[in-house]
Amino acid sequence: MLTLAGKRVDTIARRPYARRRVSSVRSLEAELTAAITTHDALDFETWARRIFRHQFERNAPYRAFCERRGVRPETLARWDDVPAVPAAAFRRHDLACGPPEAVFRTSGTTAPETRGHHLVPHLALYRASALAAFERFVLPDDARLACLFLVPPPELLPDSSLARMCTWVGEAFGHGVEWFVGAGGLDLERLLDRLAGAERRGDAVLVGGVTSAFIQLFDICASRRHVFRLGPGSRVMDTGGAKGLLRPLSRAGFLRACWTTLGVAGYACVNEYGMTELCSQRYESVLRDRFDGRGLAPRRWLAPPWLRTRVLDPDTLEPTRAGDVGLLCHHDLANAGSVAVVLTEDLGRTIGDDGIEVMGRAAMAPPRGCGLLLAELGAA
Asked: Are 211 and 245 in contact (CB under 8 A)?
């Protein structure tokens, strides 16, 4: 309550504009959530402009950054002129358009205070984006499988976006969910027993988790001469790439191990490319291509319609020529509650007219263009 001229005044009643702002925020995110859930056609240009205005008005650090770069909603020429923030900015700034419903943090144990944090004001939009992409690229046949997740459950890691996504997948699409990573790490004995049971029954299962956990599984199976043949329709979803690997393993080697160890063919093994700083993910193309009757080559990472990725020169941040290697810059409409355009330190290139290839991280220091953007955001 506010005292004015000796009288107490209800501040909310005096500020109908505040109610309209809250209503408009919910309306924008609810509208986008509905469009994603119902598979409505999305006009990317229109949505990119709406979301940029939304973030410019409500995300103070981002607005200051855009103003320093001379970009405002009314001066925006096209969607790819929306200013991008470096992923490292999520370690230094609270980039959100309102109070968060959840906070997700990047991995890292050596310096917890430097972990990036993504403040998500509305989980419904994040959930809709994650589930729609997962279904499109991992479950294009509408299969409903038992889910065996080689990641910690959300009770153990409540700020893990991967654990949250796996929870949603299990709830929406799973025929039972089991978690095989606890405080002591990967429970290999329980996992081996579960795989043996699935093999005996001929069950089709989804085994999902970080790439490093799969390598632990492959190694223990090799040492014990265990070989499984999971039921037809089984599939593998791995993510995380080289992070945490105890030994190097090429993608071809990973796919061979999935076949020789689990009996899951390469076309049923789908790698996910995601980031804590994004609410949308890319997936390898193979299952979607097979379902649509296309050839499986080249393997590439595909995106849902509300996520676009540009490849930029590391020094100038200008678009590279098609097929040239550069920094990946993601424009994720599902990031409506924070910052939609995120410049990464991941290297990649375009593949065809619908995919990208992820080629690892930029070596050592942040690329020059990315570092300059980070300095500008700090100055803002």
From this structure: yes
